[in-house]
Amino acid sequence: PPAAVVGIGRSARGVGIRAFFPRNDVGAPGNVMVLEGQIHGAIVHGLGQALFEEAVYDEQGHLLTDTFETYALPKAYGLPRFELDRIESPTPHNPLGSKGAGEVGTVGAAAAIGNAVCDALRDFGVVHIDMPYTPEKLWRIMHGHANA
Question: Residue-wise over 38-66: b if at least 16 C-beta within 10 A, else e?
């Protein structure tokens, strides 16, 4: 499973990912470049879910995050560097010995970031926070204006 190290300051900047350690059992890899691209994309998707992506509605039920200007997504310049750690244990359940790889990156990244954020905020009594871990949500927790 992946692991993450995050930093959270008292400012309104939000979560800074200091290190991310993805690890996947990919079975018998076919085209390694395609495989790694799929895993990288899945990790970015998981990081986006954990840190940014949120459907926000006003009091009348109108969606406020309905464009790429208002719906936050991860950007390449804000991503941490990560090196994939592949485990290659072929499965006997198909002729190629391959396993699904993309889903693990999405789910694992969000979970690893969530665990790291909760660990970083444990001194504030936090044991759980709903995603996404937005700067506003974290600021409110650290300044005593919200309960997780």
Answer: bbbebbbbbbbbbbbbeeeeeeeeeeeee
> Domain residues for 94?
3-142
Q: What is the 3-state secondary structure (H, E, C) of 26-62?
A: CECCCCHHHHHHHHHHHHHHHHHHHHCCCCCECCCCC
- Tell me, yes or no, whether 137 lies in a domain: yes
Residue 147 inside a domain? The answer is: no
- The H-assigned helical ranges of the chain are 32-51, 102-120, 135-142
Q: How many domains does the chain have?
A: 1
Q: What is the CATH number of the domain that holds 132?
A: 3.30.365.10
Residue 14 lies in a domain: yes
Query: pTM score, two decimals?
Result: 0.82
pLDDT in tens, 50-107: 999 999 999 999 999 999 999 989 988 888 888 788 889 999 999 999 988 878 788 8
Question: What tens digit of pLDDT does each residue of 22-33 get?
Answer: 888 889 988 999
